[in-house]
Design brief:
58% of the residues lie in helices and 0% in strands. With 115 residues, the protein is an all-alpha fold. The chain is globular and about 60 Å long.
């Protein structure tokens, strides 16, 4: 039997339109995971062209790659510049409260008062 060659999937290759990018990042943000979110913003920036995004964001290309690399902690300002360069901005929504049983609420109050 012949060997099967498996290549890495690059999601950036499938983000062909601004709508694709918007929906991709919207779903990524819904995961509420900052590391995953940063990875997805990087993927979206690559899909649009890092040099193009860097120029629109007022960053040099190397700075953009550095900010988007795995394990980096870019400043919020930098992330906003990148999103704005892609024609996007963040929006907030209220998260519905989870129903917590009354005994759990009373227990938490007691812990806070004890301190």
């Amino acid at each position: 039997m012949g060997k099967i060659k498996v290549s890495d999937l690059d999601v950036a290759e499938f983000l062909e339109t601004e709508v694709d990018v918007k929906l991709f990042l919207k779903e990524a943000l819904a995961e509420n995971d900052p590391v995953f979110w940063q990875h997805c913003v990087s993927t979206a920036a690559r899909s649009a062209g890092m040099a193009k995004i860097a120029e629109k964001a007022g960053l040099n290309r190397e700075s953009l790659y550095k900010a988007m690399k795995e394990g980096a902690h870019p400043r919020f300002e930098t992330m906003m510049k990148i999103l704005n360069a892609m024609g996007l901005q963040l929006a907030l929504k209220v998260v519905p409260e989870k129903k917590v049983p009354a005994n759990v609420v009373a227990e938490k109050r007691a812990k806070y008062k004890a301190k």
